[in-house]
Specification:
Length: 166
């Protein structure tokens, strides 16, 4: 088994750590800032996997557009500390964490045991415009459109919730 690229390892650690912060922070602004770091770590991973187009599109679309949209909706809702809800007791949070760790282990174990060698070079055109465009608009056109509808419905829901409070 080969050695792990240190830049990849740091980016993966940052991505996983800030991803955990996204779902554990009580304040939605702190969650959004953690999501920013998570997105940027994922872009570095794309760069290390020799997919600069995917990294650039990820930064532009997710970090530049989706995250700004989330921040806009969070600011529009103008949540007060008492509206954030109460925290679950430590036992419930621990049980949920243990369940998540067990599910992660079920998914990660087969991947960890996979002994196939990683290719030294990426396939020709990997992460390029043609392959990404073909995947988005031919292979996964329906899921791509459904995600856009889901994001639009979420934004409309956030606006309606904000309007009800006024």
């Amino acid at each position: 088994m080969g050695s792990i690229d240190p830049i990849f390892a740091v980016a993966a650690t940052i991505t996983v750590g800030t991803g955990l912060l996204v779902v554990t922070q009580r304040n939605p602004i702190y969650s959004a800032i953690s999501m920013l770091a998570c997105f940027l770590g994922l872009a570095v991973i794309y760069l290390r996997l020799a997919a600069p187009f995917l990294a650039a599109i990820h930064v532009l679309v997710y970090t530049g557009a989706i995250l700004v949209l989330f921040l806009f909706v969070i600011m529009l809702l103008n949540l007060k500390p008492e509206e954030l809800g109460v925290e679950y007791p430590l036992k419930v949070r621990g049980a949920a964490g243990a369940l998540c760790a067990a599910l992660f282990g079920l998914i990660a174990l087969p991947l960890w045991q996979d002994q196939r060698p990683m290719p030294k070079e990426s396939p020709t055109g990997f992460g390029g415009v043609e392959q990404v465009g073909h995947a988005l608009f031919v292979d996964y056109a329906l899921p791509f459109e459904l995600i856009s509808v889901l994001i639009m419905v979420a934004v409309f829901g956030g606006v309606l919730l904000a309007k009800k409070k006024l």
